[in-house]
Amino acid sequence: MLRLGEKQVLKCIKKVEFGVYLAEEGAWEDKVLLPVKQVPEGLAVGDELEVFLYRDSKDRIICTVNEPLITVGTPAILEVADVGRNGAFVSCGLERDILLPFKEQTYKVKKGDKVLVALYTDKSNRLCTTMKVYDYLKKESPYKKDDKVTGFVYDISDRFGVYVAVDEIYSGRIPPREYDERLSYGQIITARVSKLLPDGKMDLSMRKKAYKQMEDDVDLIVNLLIERGGFLGLHDKSSPEDIKKVTHLSKNAYKRAVGRLLKENKITIEETGIRLR
């Protein structure tokens, strides 16, 4: 059976002027063309060859010996080559770009964007890509707690946090309390594995371990105080949003840093904020 979007080892069954026909052993009627410019020198009838199957501009199943940037079932980061009426088109390393339908986009993309997508066949048996990659990511990674990992931000939820494809293929999530800076779609980040979940997924953190992070947070508050003439207009009743906007810290992290500074007698607390001694 010929499988679109996958690499298969097929046998050369016939040579013609415009290429060779390949097929699976014992399924000669289900053959596919390898264009003449793709045929390796010396390929003979009966030889086997690994090829990738896709559709050409006339919607015919065809194959290539070129290495695709993506195959069915395994996500990859691809570049948006163009945007048309039915969606965007992503470059996959082949002569023909692959459609990324509007309904499969998790945010609006433009030409030149790098997007994490998965490859699938639609109801018409055509290859398409989707940015809804959550179910395509692997749930068993080789990483352990506190390992440093690199990942691609593919989705953002105010409630659940930032979803990250670690190494482009493993499922990871940064809970809202575990990042301070504003993250964006398509960003490549470095994080720490904070928890390995029972289902094999990873919780990540962009913050250091508590005792190390505390030192950084304290230094941040002191520098902000110095920059602002010794006074910072944030207090116990300030909203988490206001605190994050000014300091990029959660309210709890801010209160812990202020508590440390107060204990070390480096600040005083006033009704409308904190002041450097």
Spatially, the strands of the biggest sheet line up as 3-2-1-4-5
According to DSSP, the number of beta strands is: 18
What value does the average pLDDT take? 91
* H-E order: EEEEEEEEEEEEEEEHEHHEE
Specify the overall morphology: elongated
Q: Compute the gyration radius: what is it? A: 27 Å
Strand content: 35-45%
Task: Give a short account of the largest sheet.
Answer: 5 strands, antiparallel
Counting helices, strands and paired strands, the structural category is mainly beta
Helix content: 10-25%
User: How far is the N terminus from the C terminus?
Assistant: 77 Å
The stretches of 5 or more residues where confidence is low (pLDDT under 50) are none
What is the overall number of helices? Answer: 3
Could you walk me through the main structural features you see in this protein, from its secondary elements to its overall organization?
By secondary structure, this protein is mainly beta. The chain contains 3 helices and 18 strands. It has helices at residues 210-227, 240-247, 251-263, and strands spanning 7-16, 19-23, 32-35, 48-55, 61-64, 76-83, 87-90, 98-101, 114-121, 127-130, 148-157, 161-166, 170-174, 188-196, 202-205, 231-232, 267-270, 273-276. A hairpin with a 5-residue loop joins strand 4 and strand 5. The model has no long low-confidence stretch (mean pLDDT 91).
